[in-house]
Write a structure and sequence with these properties.
eight-stranded antiparallel beta sheet; about 50% helix; about 20% strand; 8 strands; elongated
Length: about 280
Amino acid sequence: MDLSCIIQSGDLELYVMGMLPPEEAAKVETLAQMFPEIKDELNAIAATFEAGAMQAAITPSASVKEKVMASLSAQQSKTDNIPAAKVVEMKMEPVAATVKSFSKLAIAASWGLLILLGGLSAYLFNNNSKLKSDVATLQQSSAAYEEQMAGLTKKISSYETYRRLKSDPSLTSVALASVKPEVQQQAEVFWNKATGELFIDPSSLPQAPAGKQYQLWFLIDGKPTDAGMISLTDVASIQKMKECKGAQMFAITLEDEGGKPTPDLNALVVAGKVS
């Protein structure tokens, strides 16, 4: 199975850093249990982060403390030798001059504040736009990941169903082979002769053309009986069909969508006898 799309999605790095939502983190943990490649990739990412942190760490030398203490002592000595500051009497300016000077300073400060706010607004706008773009990209990646996970879950469920049916001693397995040697297609039927339960695995059949649909039949004394239509949209999943109380053969025809009450023998695709 190609797991590169999951490994390259960036979700594994976010999981190692503890930045994935709980539901996404749980899915990553499930994948790690199912696929050793995912687990190995998580371990490799964690090791890379740890190695980077160790390389960036700086250990001070043993003489640093002595140098700092010596510098502080020297600064203290210089401070002690500085003569007392001379007190100078300040002349008070007229109130009007002080107000005028303050007004000029206030105007200059206002312009400086406006320029600062303008620059800050532009910075925040650009970063907000980038953040929105990153969020949109992340949402698209998350949607693609959800779709891949849904498909993977479906395949695993189908495989588990097939394995259960294949190992069930109460079920008879009937292989349906192509009736045309030049066409490579097949299917498999699982039938409980006692209860009449009937299942089909059509995963090896090609996708039906537009307007067409596969129809399953079982034959008793040469008479065909409809066993149901096979899904056009989900040929990868094992499907439960109509009950079959007795059969000597199973067959599949490619009929018009919706099926027919009697099969078109010219449309016969695969068939197999019950052993």
